[in-house]
Write a structure and sequence with these properties.
Helix content is 38%, strand content 32%. With 192 residues, it is an alpha/beta fold. The protein has two domains: 42 residues; 144 residues, Lipoprotein like domain (Double Stranded RNA Binding Domain, 2-Layer Sandwich), CATH 3.30.160.150. The longest helix has 35 residues. The N and C termini lie far apart (63 Å). The C terminus is likely disordered.
Amino acid sequence: MFKNIISIIFVIGLMGCSTTQIKNKISNVIDEHVYSNSPEQSTVDLSNQYKVLKSIPFGENSVIDERVKTECKNLGNQLSSNIVENAPKFDIKMTQVLERPVSTGVFVDVYFVNIYTRGNAFIGHRKSTAIKADLYLNNKLLSSKSIARNSNGGFFGSFKSSCSVLERTVDALGSDIAKWLSTQDTKVKASS
């Protein structure tokens, strides 16, 4: 009889411990759920996951001089490379992709809108390059920016080709885009 009473007390004690442990686990699960859904915990910073096309294309309705299309074929690659090279100066990590991504993340859709080329080395250069950049987060448009740069060739401009002068504008635009991206908020709710 005494053994039965001790066994019952022991079983009740174990049940009491188990109930307490279960209550603690439930409490922990509830706490984790509440804290994981708080605004501080549920945002994901995607600022180190930017993507840009390896070669920046001409926009659909762009106004591009035919001579630029045939003679200055490297402008798209150069602009993309300049954006990637300038991004770390603004604490941004940028990678190049071959085609527009359809997955989650941050994508910078940059395209040429207008390239104006007049003049030459003998009479002086008058060049202008205009681009537009659309910033997408998880395939949703966050913001857009249009930027243009002009150049007359700079120092020794009279010794430079038209493509060389346009490349100067593209170099400046790469820095402009990286600087603009550093002002954009790419933090999103993890659940969205």
